[in-house]
Amino acid sequence: MEGVELLPNEGDPDASYTYEAYDLGDLKKLSDKRSRERTVSNALDAIRDTSEYIRKLQERARHQPPEQAKLSLTCAAKLERLRNMILDQVRRYQPVPIDAPTACRCGPMAFRLPEYLEQQCLDIALDSSAPSA
Question: Core-most of 13, 46, 55, 80, by most CB within 10 Å?
Fold first, then answer.
């Protein structure tokens, strides 16, 4: 991926400090970022594909003789388990951790990412219940 390097905003001493303190230009960190992007991209493709295959296998089973229907439904169930494993992996990369606190002493917390981070995120449904029959 081109343009993956993070650079501090010019004139922002906090950004410069963070860049230096966390060594954001480190080649390993950049490589890890590229790897995460590939992992999520491939996972999203697999989720999309397996969801469609599961739906087709379930539909096909409705019109098959019992033995063939059983095989189609078994394959659909195995694909669904694989899809759910992939969903679990994708959840590891969500921008707000699932165990993030929802309140503090000062009141309710607003979970809004800064705009520059929000622009880098994909809004995807990670519903592991779809598409069951």
Answer: 80
Confidence of residue 125 (pLDDT cuts 50, 70, 90): low
Residue identified by tokens 């739906």 is 55
What number of residues does the chain have? 133
Average pLDDT over residues 41-54: 92
For residues 12 and 20, what is the distance between their CA atoms, to the nearest angstrom?
13
Cβ contacts of 90 within 8 Å, gap of 6 or more? 40, 43, 44, 47, 124, 126
Provide the 10 A C-beta neighbour count for residue 57.
Answer: 22
| CA dihedral for 83, 85, 86, 88, sign (positive or negative) | positive
Distance (Å, whole) CA 71 – CA 38 = 33
* pTM of model > 0.70: no
Rounded Cα gap, residues 117 and 111, in angstroms: 13
Residue 60 has pLDDT above 80, yes or no: yes
